[in-house]
Amino acid sequence: MMPPPVPPSSMSSGPPSITFIGTIWRWLLGFTVVARVRGLAMGTVSWGRAMVTAVPFLWLALFFGLPFLVVLKISFSEAVIAQPPYTPLLTWADDGIMVLRVNFQNYLLLVQDSLYWMAYLNSVRLAAMATAICLLLGYPMAYAIAKAKASFRVPLLMLIILPFWTSFLIRVYAWIGILKNNGLLNNLLIWLGVIDQPLPFMHTDFSVLVGIVYSYLPFMVLPLFATLSRMDESLLEAAADLGCRPGKAFLSITLPLSMSGVVAGSMLVFIPAVGEFVIPDLLGGPNTLMIGKVLWTEFFSNKDWPVASAVAVATLLLLVVPLVWFQKAQEESTKKVEELV
Amino acid sequence: MRRWRSFALFTVLAFGYAFLYVPILSLIVYSFNESRLVTVWAGFSTKWYGVLLENDQILSAAWLSLKIAVMNACGAVVLGALAGLVLARFGRFRGRTAFTTLITAPLVMPEVIIGLSLLMLFVALQNLIGWPETRGMTTITIAHLTFSTAYVTVVIQSRLSQMDVSIEEAALDLGAKPAKVFFVITVPVIAPALVAGWLLAFTLSLDDLVIASFVSGPGASTLPMVVYSSVRLGVSPQINALATIIVCIVTVAILIAGFIMHRQEKQRLDA
Question: What ipTM does the predicted assembly reach?
Answer without folding.
Answer: 0.87
